[in-house]
Specification:
This protein is an alpha+beta fold. Helices cover about 35% and strands about 20% of the residues. Helix 2 packs across helix 3. The two termini are about 25 Å apart.
Length: about 150
């Protein structure tokens, strides 16, 4: 993955992540540089693969406000592959990461209601090979820079 080259690139990327439609003139004013500098930087960041595209993020209707939990799993070493395969079958799991430290796997689990989340967490904890789990309910998302999935052919 290509990376930003300097502090100006990083500041520019942070502004674009907040609002990719911000006019070049406003970006230039906020960064204290010429519009042509901003234009050249954006073109280079696109050309080198640091910026790979732009998207529209739609808001969720108020009733579509799922509950989420961060779930840490300690798994028997010989069972990691089988556990990961089993975790793939849970539609509630939005993200699965292997991590170092006290736990082996970190999950982002999402369900429509707290009761559904509770059931999914019980099922996950009951997977053979899971030695222990620790869950934290997400209270609020202050910001999210994760990539937005794109539709094929779009």
């Amino acid at each position: 993955m290509a990376t930003a080259r300097d502090t100006l690139d990083k500041k520019l990327l942070a502004l674009l992540q907040m609002n990719a439609r911000m006019p070049t003139s406003e970006l230039a004013r906020k960064l204290g540089v010429a519009r042509s500098t901003v234009h050249e930087r954006i073109a280079r960041l696109e050309r080198t693969g640091v910026i790979t595209g732009y998207t529209t993020v739609l808001s969720r209707p108020a009733q579509d406000n799922p509950v989420r939990a961060l779930v840490m799993l300690a798994v028997e070493q010989q069972q990691v592959r089988q556990t990961l395969k089993r975790l793939e079958t849970f539609p509630e799991i939005r993200s699965c990461l292997t991590v170092s430290g006290e736990f082996d796997i970190c999950l982002v689990v999402e369900a429509p209601q707290l009761e559904d989340l509770d059931e999914a967490l019980d099922d996950i904890a009951g997977i053979p090979g899971v030695q222990r789990s620790r869950s934290s309910i997400v209270l609020a998302t202050k910001f999210d820079r994760s990539p937005v999935p794109t539709l094929a052919g779009g």
